[in-house]
Amino acid sequence: MASSYDLSLVILSIIISVLASFTALRLAQRVGESHSAAQYAWLTAAAVAMGGGIWAMHFVAMLAFSLAVPITYSLDLTLLSLMLAIAFTAAGILLAFHFGTGGKVLCLAGILMGSGIATMHYTGMAAMQMRASIHYDLPLVGLSVIIAIVASMAALWLTFRFQTVPGNIVAALIMGAAVCGMHYCGMYAASFTQCQPMPEDHSVDLPLQWLAIGVAVITIIVLCLGLVLSIVDQRLSARVTAEANRLRGSEARFRSLVQNAADAVTLTDRQGMITYESPSTESVLGYAPGHLIGQTIHHLVDPPDRASFYALLHAVTEHPGVARSIDVQLRQGNGHTGQFEIIATNLLDDENVGGIVLNIRDISARLQNIKLEDLVIQRTKELSAANQQLLAEIAERNAAEQALQQAHDQLERKVLERTAELESIKNAAIQASRAKSQFLANMSHELRTPLNAIIGFADALSQGIRGPLADRQAEYINDIMWAGRHLLHLINDILDLSKIESGKIQLDYRDCSLDSFASEIAMTIRPVVEQNGNRFTVDCAANIGSAVIDQVKARQALLNLLGNAAKFTKNGNVELSVQRTTDHHGDRIQFIVRDTGIGIAPEDLSHLFENFYQANPGITREFGGTGLGLALSQKLCHAMGGDIYVESKLGIGSTFIIDLPAAP
Questions:
Q1: pLDDT per residue over 593-631, tens digit each?
Q2: 244 domain-assigned
Q3: Do residues 381 and 514 share a domain?
Q4: Which of 470, 505, 540 is the last residue of a domain?
Q5: CA-CA distance, 644 to 558, in Å (whole number)?
Q6: CA separation, residue 339 to residues 253, 324, 331, 656 (Å)
Q7: Does a structural domain hold residue 646?
Q8: Do 482 and 532 fall within a single domain?
Q9: Could you please report the per-residue DSSP string of 151-211?
Q10: pLDDT digits (tens, 9 = 90+) for 234-280
């Protein structure tokens, strides 16, 4: 059958196709520029615009086509073709939006959209009701489908790669050409053969005039609304984005100003609890970032200033928007207090702030400068007055200088004379000390000779060499021996003391087993200790080792201490302990003597090691002694590089510690 086209309707169909493609692609572009649920709304609008536009172009083009027989259309298949166009177009755009326009995704999206266009076309062809049958040239049908697919790929690639108006126009021209090319290629592939009678169809027939009007109206409304909506939304989005950028820039600017301000800025609630602190708080107040959050500002205010600060906070709370200031002392992070100015502004009603803003400014330097200025003024006045007085006194001082020079010369002569006298006295004192030491040494030697004879003869008499003695005679002889030995011991102490003071003492260091040394001391002193009913114990580890010491001097000092402990303790405990210790001076040996005797009063401890010092005359009369034992023991320890320490409580007992180096 012969067919023909209305050229004006063909041109109109091409325009509709291009316009629909441009509108749909602009709407699809809004999908990528929107967020969340709005994306699917724009996707639906793009699919409706594309599918509806393709469908409108198809039927306008079909209205441009005429045969020798009347043509009507099935409503069911017509609506089905519309739904297919919308569904396939939506699927293609959604796929390209979610997965990009890579090679595989672009091919699949183009196939979906091209297949949708072809399916819509041939479904619309099937909706034609006429007294003719349709036959298709399959190669041309395939070509029409390929045209639709390739053009759809190109349109999608241009849409998502070049999101500008020129890019959209090029993509719309390609897409419109694809739709029109596919349609007219498909129509060229169809041939019509008249048949009698017309096939029966129970679907509703649509008059061509009303169909043309409806398609045109729907197409114009949908495309215009979609295009206007896209343009308006794009401008609104651009305006919103610009406003958001402006607000972000403003926020960043004010945040930078706050963060870099010389003042510390804090935000508190009505009760003064800090909810925000600027970074400058660390440099102004000395607290680590975030340390003040959750604390009340009142705890930073020095107690004398808290009442004034409470009044400020109350006044600010009662007058929103009014700034008030006060100078207070604040506690800083280093524990010190400083003078600060606090400017408080009530912005509790401001929804963007919602608190009381406190600007904290360090004014210590300013106050110091003011004080310095006042001090400079005061000092200037004082200096001026002093200058006048000084000018008046210069004359007097000039006159007095000569007198002072004369007095200085006289004083210098007297000092020289006095220095010579003191040097003479010093030399005399040194000679006297030496003479004393020599005298004591000589006297000791002179006294020891007859004393040894007296002690020897008394010992011989006590042994009955000259015959038996009566009881009274034996008692006298024992008294003579005791007194002689006591006097000999005293003379030996004086002699040793004189040697030490004159620097003539000689030390004989030998390797000594500390365990054997302690046993020897214990054997010597045990009878003396137990004579007063005391219990004597020795604490010395068997593996304590040896030390290089002067055994004679150490024994003498130790026996003095043990003798005192035995003398001043009755029915108690006396203990000798030997320990080895180490300190920063090296290896050391400690001999510790403990007793439970009468103890020493605190006021006597500082004089205990003085020559001839006796704490209590009553104790001396009761127990005896000369006051040389402890002084001599200390000097012996000093000579060996050690010392003696004492701890004592009156009525409880005493502890003496001899501390000596393990090697000289």
A1: 999 998 888 888 877 877 665 655 555 445 455 567 788
A2: no
A3: no
A4: 505
A5: 10
A6: 30, 17, 9, 57
A7: yes
A8: no
A9: HHHHHHHHHHH--SHHHHHHHHHHHHHHHHHHHHHHHHHEEEEE-SSPPP--SPB--HHHH
A10: 555 556 566 656 656 655 555 555 555 667 888 888 888 888 887 77
